[in-house]
Amino acid sequence: DGDTGNGNGNGNGDGGTRQIGISQHQAGGSWITAFFDSGKIYAESQGYELETFIHEADAATQINQVRQMINQDYDGIVLVPWDESLNTAIEEAEEAGIPVFTANQDATTEAIKSFTAFGNENAGRICGERMYQSLTDQKPDVDTYRVLNVRGEFISSSNARTDGFLGVMEGQDDVEIVDTIQTNWTQSDAQSKVSTWLNGNEAPHGVYSSNMTSGLGTFQALEDQDLMVPKGEDGHIVITQLDGGPDVNPKILDGFIDAAVDQPVTYYIPLAIKQMEAWWENGDDAIPEIGSELTADAFSFDPVDHQNGTLWSEPTWAPAQVIEKDGHSYVQTNGVTLTEENADEPYLWGNIWG
Predict the structure, then answer these.
(1) What number is the average pLDDT over the span 275-298?
(2) Which of 118, 230, 318, 330 is least surrounded by Cβ atoms within 10 Å, i.e. has the fewest?
């Protein structure tokens, strides 16, 4: 539509400071800290004010936060939507000429300019492929591989991660999914439920966990049962999972976890802001085009030394495929497959914030 927003300047000191708001459901934890901090670092480097709103998993609060940003004439909004009730407020922002971008989780309205996150189903598929390759390489004499599936709650991202994994597993004649354990995404819940399962069943040949906290709980349950044996030793259970992290990467390096598919979380908010900057300049024509591929050259970032590593020193988000989702562009970033070969790299968020 060519509308380039509220014209509060470009953040470079020659026309005022752009104000960006971000609303997310919780604070705390290493992943969310990496998510927020990388966004703040990029915004500050460009001279923008980035205001953070936390709604503690309350949809009504998030709706009020978006309306507050509209009333205060923010230049742009980045959202991690809680549920579809937010759509009306997003559409109100669009009507007010304020661009809304989503990151990590999406909204189901055409009023979103673009959504940035990795592909959950593809990540699950890679975990399935790594699982099967490791099982056949390490346990060639087994006739039927018994695999335990540990998943999160029944929401779209969790379903996609599980479907991608199961799609690979169900295509193998020599694999049996012996059970599926649903967790509430917490380490304690996974530990409790997996421990109960292990007490009543023969140890599986492989375990897949669809998120970091469930994976850590599963790891602890196996360790409590003296079933955590490193790769290359008898009794090793093949483990693949979604997400690396400060507590995951060392377990990969030690051979306990065979592979993890990590999110390029340090790029989520910066990529959303990069697209916002382009929109400020050229309106909707600047939004990444559906059907295109974005290479690292499309959005470049200067590396920054931060805590224990170097932020943005490797463009782990690229290449990204731009696809259609709910009437808007979805910048589906690459994921990083972590193994013993690369789990100690200084550009990984789990090592920077470790």
Answers:
(1) 97
(2) 230
